[in-house]
Amino acid sequence: MSHWKKVCLLTEIPPLGARVIQHPQGDIAVFRNADDEVFALEDRCPHKGGPLSQGIVYGKTVACPLHGWQIGLECGTAAAPDEGCARRYAVRLDGNAVLLNTEAAA
Amino acid sequence: MQKLKLVMIGNGMAGVRTLEELLALTPSRYDITVFGEEPHPNYNRILLSPVLAGEQTVQDIILNPLEWYAEQGITLHLGKKVVKIDRKKRVVYAADGTEAEYDRLLMATGSKPFILPVPGKDLPGVISYRDIHDTEQMLAAARQYRHAVVIGGGLLGLEAANGLMLQGMSVTVVHLGEWLLERQLDKVAGQLLQQSLEQRGLRFALQAQTAALLAGESGRVSAVQLKDGTELAADLVVMAVGIRPNTELAESCGLYCNRGIVVNDTLQTFDPRIYAVGECVNHRGIAYGLVAPLYEQARVCANHLAGWGYGRYVGSVLSTKLKVTGIDLFSAGDFMGGDGHEEITLSDPVGGVYKKLVLKGDKLVGACLYGDTADGAWYFRLLKDEQPIGEIRDHLMWGENNLGDTGHAGENKAAAMADEAEVCGCNGVRKITIVKAIREKGLTTLDEVKKHTKASGSCGSCAGLCEQILMNVLGSSFDATPKTKTVCGCTDRNHQEVRDAIREHHLVSIPQTMQFLEWRTPNGCATCRPALNYYLIATWPGEARDDPQSRFINERAHANIQKDGTYSVVPRMWGGVTNASELRRIADVTDKYRIPLVKVTGGQRIDLLGVKKEDLVNVWRDLDMPSGHAYGKSLRTVKTCVGSEFCRFGTQDSTQMGIDLEHDLFGMWSPHKVKLAVSGCPRNCAESGIKDVGVIGVDSGWELYVGGNGGIKTEVAQFFAKVASHAEVLEYSGAFLQLYREEAFYLERTVHYLHRVGLEHAKQRVVADADNRKALYARLKYALSFEQDPWAERIQGEQKHEFEALPA
Ligand code: SRM
Ligand SMILES: Cc1cc2nc3c(=O)[nH]c(=O)nc-3n(C[C@H](O)[C@H](O)[C@H](O)COP(=O)(O)OP(=O)(O)OC[C@H]3O[C@@H](n4cnc5c(N)ncnc54)[C@H](O)[C@@H]3O)c2cc1C
Ligand code: SF4
Ligand code: FES
C-alpha cells in the first residue's frame, strides 16, 4: 500500500512560504521555495520548539520566528554555530499536487 | 570547468584571512597553493605578547590548524621560502626548488623588523620580536639570563618588556623619544604610563640613543652602550624600533614598490594578475601595521579574486590599545590636536586617570584615554562614523553610560568584570565564553561575536560591553565594521545606498531591487527582505506591493507570536479610551475562545494572550475593533492623560489630542515602532518625555518633543518645537515622522536616527522650513491613504491561507 497522501495543491502554498499540516504525530510544515521545490519538516524548531512554518523562507532555509535559528529545509539541521535538527518528512510533487509520506524518512 | 590556480606567498594573518573570505564566497573557483616561510600553520601573531607573558601557549594561538588546510583542499608548503617569481611563465620557486604555477598570485609577505645599524647588531642574544621563533628565544633567554634591554618604547617594545619582566628578567627600555608611545599618546598620558610601568618594576632610559652593542667573554651580547657613554647590562637585547614592509621578493620580480608593494583600491599590484594584502602593502601612501585594516583589505581582495568585482578598499581609521594586563590606555584618530582643533581634557594624576578628546567643528576627531578606557569603543565609533556631537558635547567626557542607562550601569568596565559575570542577559552569555570564542575562533568583529556566542544578538544592549571585551582581548579596536554597515551578508551595499537606489532608479519590487544592486543570494534572507519591503512601500506608496512573505510573522499574521506558537491580540483603543460596549465584547470573546490571559498593557490598552492562530480572524470579527498594530514596525499607541476635561491641573484637552493623533497616523508603517504620548500639563502623566513624539500641553499651546525611548536604553526626548494650535500638532508630528520614514534605516528608532543625522537636521527640515513641512505631511497623508485596517481586510478573506491549517 502506498503511504503517499495528497495534502494540498502547490498553489495553495505561497512561494517562499509554508502551510501547516495537522497530523496526529504533530504539526508538519510544508514549505515552498522560489523555485517551486517543496520540503517538509516537523513544525518544531530544535531550539525551543518554535513553529518553523511561521518563519521567513529564503534559498533553501527557513529562519525560525522565535529566535532566528536558520534551519536547512533539505536536511532539517540548524546552521552553525547553532546545533540541532528538525525531523524531515518525505514530500514530492505530482503535477500540481503536493504528496506527503509520513511513513518514510526523507 | 577547469579550476584557476591561485598561489599565495606568506602564510600569515592577512593572507589566510583573504583565503577564508574567498572560500566563503566561492569554495571551488581555485586550486590553492600556499607557501609559508615559518614552519607553523597560521597563528594569531598579536597574541604572541600574552604567550611571552605566560598567559597563553603557542598552541592556544593557532588560528587555522593543519586539518583546516586539508579540509579546504589547500596545498600547503610550510617552512619554504619563495625566492623567485617568473611573471612571464607565471611560476613561483621556493628556496628548496619547489615550484608552483599560478593564474592569480597573492602576496602577503608581511613586514620585517627594522634592525638598527649599530656595531654589534649581529651578536648572539640580539633579536627582534616578530614571530614564534623570536618568542621562544626570549622565553629560553629568560630561563637562563638576568638582564634584558628592549630598544624601542612603542607598543611592541613595551609588550616585550612587560613579558620579559613577568618571566623574571630585569628589564630596561631604551627609547629615543621624549615620552613613551609618542605615536599613540600625548605627553601627559605617556608619563602616566611610564609611572605605572615603573611601579611594576620596568626601568626606562628616555631620549637615549643606542651607540653600540658590546660582546662579553662568551661572545654573547653583554651590554648596550648609549651615545652619552652609559652602559646597560644586557644578556638579551630586543630590537623593537619599527617594521619595514617586506618587499624583497616583489622588488626582485620587478613589481612597483615604494615603501610597500603599491596597490590600488582593489588590492591589485601593477601586474593585474598579482594581488597583495597586509603589512607588505602600500595603499594610497599608507602601510598599515595593525590587523583591523588588513582584514578590511582581505575582504575586498577576496571579493575581487572571487570575481564579484565590486568591493573597494579606501583606507582605515585606526585605534590602539596596549596589551599589558592591568594597564588601560586607548587612543584613536588625531589625538594631538593643534590649530583649528579644540580639546576637552580631564586629568586626575593621583587617581591615574587622564582623558583627552579632540574636536574639530562638531565632530570628534581624536581621543586619548589613560586609566579609564571604558568608553574607548564608543568614542571610536563616534569618530569613525563622523557623527555630529554638538548636542552631546556637554556629556561627551562622561561617556556613553552618562547618556542613559545601558542596562549595565556600574558594570561598564569589561576589563574589571569577573570571568563568570553575565554579559548578555538575554542569552545568558558569560564573559569567559566570549573571551574564549574570541581567542579560539579568531573573532575580530562584533558581528562575529554575535554569531558565535549569541551575545548581543537579542536586545543588543550589551553590544558596547562586547566591543570592550573584544578590544581588551585583541589589543586594538577590531571593530572593523566599515563606516557604514552593509545591510546583511547578502550584499555589500549599506542601508543608505539601498534607500538611494530605490528612490533614484524607481525600483518597486524586491526582485528588481536585488537584481539592480547585484544581491549575492537568489532571494535574500530574513534580515534584508523585511528591510527592502519597508523601503519599497515607504518610497513608492501605492506602487510598490507589500510582500507578506518578506514580513516577520507578526506583521504577516497581524498578531504577536508567543513562545508556545499562539498569538496575542491587542485591539486599538484610541488614546487609551474605551467604553462599556467594547469591554463587553472583549469579555465575550475571552469566554468564547477560551483565551487564557487578559492583561492591561503598558500602552494603555488590553491584550488578549494565548489565542490560537486559527481563531485569530474570528476573534477579530467578534471584537469588531481595529488592529492595535501592537506587533508591527508601525504606529503603536498614543498614550494620553485625562487632561483639561477632568483634571484640575489640565491646560489642554490631551485625551482628544491623542485620539486625533492616533487617527491621523493610523496604519503608518515605519522603520521601527513608533509611540506617542500627549500630556495635558507639564506634570506629564502620559510620560511624553520618553516617546518617539511626546506632546505636552501648556497654557499657551503645545510643546513637542522627539526622539524619546523608554525601552532597552532609556532616552529622554529632546525639545523640538512649540506650537499654538491643535492642527499644528498634527502637522509637525506627521512631518517629523515622515522625515523619519524617508531617511531612517530599517530597525532604527527615532532616537538612533536623530543620533545619526542630528536634531538640528530635523529641525531645519520640519520646524524652520514651512513649505518642506507641509510637503512632508502631504506625502505622509498620501502614503496613509493606501492603508486600511488589516484586521478588517482579513475578515473579508484577505490572505486566507495564512490562518488555515490543512488536515493530514
Ligand atoms: C504587551 C506589552 C507588555 C505589557 O504587557 O504591557 C509589550 C510586549 C512586548 N514588547 Fe514591549 N510591550 C509593551 C510595552 C512596551 C513599552 C511601554 C510603552 O509602550 O509605553 C516599552 C518601552 C517604550 C518604548 O518602546 O520606547 C516597550 C519596549 C519594548 C522593546 C524595546 C524597544 C526599544 O527600542 O528599546 C522591545 C523590543 C523591540 O521592539 O525590538 C519590545 C518588544 C516586545 C514584544 C513584542 C517582544 C516580541 O517581539 O515578541 C513583547 C510581546 C509579548 C508577547 O508575547 O505578546 N518592547 N514595550 C506592552 C504592549 C503595549 C501596547 O499596548 O502596545
Ligand atoms: C608581538 C606582536 C604583537 C602585536 N600586537 C598587535 C595588536 O595588539 N594589534 C594589532 O592590530 N596588531 C598587532 N601586531 C601586528 C600584527 O600582528 C600584524 O599587523 C599582522 O600579523 C600582519 O599580517 P600580515 O599577514 O601582513 O603579516 P604576517 O602575519 O607577518 O604574515 C606574513 C608571513 O609571510 C611569511 N613570508 C614572508 N616572506 C615570505 C616568502 N618569501 N615566502 C614564504 N613566506 C614568506 C612570513 O614568514 C610570515 O609568516 C602585533 C605584532 C607582533 C609581532
Ligand atoms: S513583555 Fe517586554 S519586558 Fe516582558 S519579557 Fe517580553 S519583551 Fe521582555
Ligand atoms: S525556537 Fe526556533 S530559534 Fe528559538
UniProtKB/TrEMBL annotation, chain A:
InterPro entries listed in its UniProt record: Rieske-like_NirD, Rieske_2Fe-2S, Rieske_2Fe-2S_sf
Rieske domain span: 5-100
SUPFAM superfamilies: ISP domain
PROSITE patterns assigned to the protein according to its UniProt record, in alphabetical order: RIESKE
CDD domains the record matches: Rieske_NirD_small_Bacillus
Pfam families recorded: Rieske
Keyword list, A-Z: 2Fe-2S, Iron, Iron-sulfur, Metal-binding, Nitrate assimilation, Oxidoreductase
Keyword Transmembrane helix: no
NCBIfam families reported for this sequence: nirD_assim_sml (TIGR02378)
Protein known as: Assimilatory nitrite reductase small subunit
Organism this protein belongs to: Chitinimonas prasina
UniProtKB/TrEMBL annotation, chain B:
Domain BFD-like [2Fe-2S]-binding: 423-470, 487-537
Domain FAD/NAD(P)-binding span(s) in chain numbering: 5-283
Pathway of action: Nitrogen metabolism; nitrate reduction (assimilation)
Cofactor: FAD; siroheme; [2Fe-2S] cluster; [4Fe-4S] cluster
Keywords on record: 2Fe-2S, 4Fe-4S, FAD, Flavoprotein, Heme, Iron, Iron-sulfur, Metal-binding, Nitrate assimilation, Oxidoreductase
Family matches, as SUPFAM superfamilies: FAD/NAD(P)-binding domain, Nitrite and sulphite reductase 4Fe-4S domain-like, Nitrite/Sulfite reductase N-terminal domain-like
NADH-rubredoxin oxidoreductase C-terminal domain location: 319-385
Segments forming domain Nitrite/sulphite reductase 4Fe-4S: 632-769
Nitrite/Sulfite reductase ferredoxin-like domain segment(s): 562-624
Family: Belongs to the nitrite and sulfite reductase 4Fe-4S domain family.
NCBIfam families, sorted: nitri_red_nirB (TIGR02374)
Protein name: Nitrite reductase large subunit
Organism: Chitinimonas prasina
